[in-house]
Amino acid sequence: MKQISATEFNARDAGDYVLIDVREAWEREIYNIGGLHLPMDELFKKAAELPKDKEVILYCEKGIRSVIAIQRLEAQGFTNLTNLAGGMKTWKASNL
Q1: Which domain holds residue 76?
Q2: Which residues does the annotation mark as catalytic?
Q3: Which CATH number is 47's domain given?
Q4: Which residues, other chains included, contact 4 with Cβ-Cβ below 8 Å and sequence gap of 6+?
Q5: What is the pLDDT of residues 84-96, one digit of tens each?
Q6: For burial by CB atoms within 10 Å, which of 1, 8, 13, 33 has the most?
Q7: Are the C-beta atoms of residues 36 and 56 closer than 8 Å to each other?
């Protein structure tokens, strides 16, 4: 599974990828770094709508749910998925 660190992510140009937050709405309200909001149950229902020709970076709070989401999507044939390693917790710590 492909991973990207918070530092690497911050160096990326917006538009090079699609960013997806798989956390619940209440978590996103507290803090988020943008992107589409598709909690895991919605993500799997809308998987067919995800681009397959562009990198898709998924994130959650600690990087665990996004790993699970990626594993399930890879089982459906996706090969363009990247996990934000450590999730929001690591991203926040690196951006203080």
Answers
A1: 2-94
A2: 60
A3: 3.40.250.10
A4: 12, 57, 82, 83, 84, 85
A5: 999 999 999 988 6
A6: 33
A7: no
